[in-house]
Amino acid sequence: QMLPLLEELNHKFGINVCGEGGEYETITLDCPLFRKKIVLDDFEVITHSDDAIAKVSYLKPIKLHLEDKK
């Protein structure tokens, strides 16, 4: 679903569709190795640099809890 948007961003700004070079990062909240999943109840998006071409933001968890897997 995101591929067309990522390809457009690649064409406009030269970002790497795979995220190489630090264009975006991930956070893992659940995976088969986890005994419980992490649930973010509240978070804040912090903008470190509001540059028009290379905006840098990160997610600051405020409240989270562990939840049993179903």
Automatic annotation (TrEMBL):
UniProt keyword annotations, A-Z: ATP-binding, Ligase, Nucleotide-binding
One matching Pfam family: Diphthami_syn_2
Enzyme Commission number(s) of this protein: 6.3.1.14
Pathway per the UniProt entry: Protein modification; peptidyl-diphthamide biosynthesis
InterPro entries, per the entry: Diphthami_syn_dom, DPH6/MJ0570
GO molecular function: ATP binding; diphthine-ammonia ligase activity
SUPFAM superfamilies noted in UniProt: Adenine nucleotide alpha hydrolases-like (SSF52402)
Database matches in Gene3D superfamilies: putative n-type atp pyrophosphatase, domain 2 (3.90.1490.10)
Enzyme class: ligase
Catalytic activity entry: diphthine-[translation elongation factor 2] + NH4(+) + ATP = diphthamide-[translation elongation factor 2] + AMP + diphosphate + H(+)
GO biological process, one term: protein histidyl modification to diphthamide
Coiled coil: none
Domain Diphthamide synthase intervals: 6-57
PANTHER family cross-referenced by the UniProt entry: DIPHTHINE--AMMONIA LIGASE (PTHR12196:SF2), DOMAIN OF UNKNOWN FUNCTION 71 DUF71 -CONTAINING PROTEIN (PTHR12196)
Name of the protein: Diphthine--ammonia ligase
Originating organism: Oppiella nova
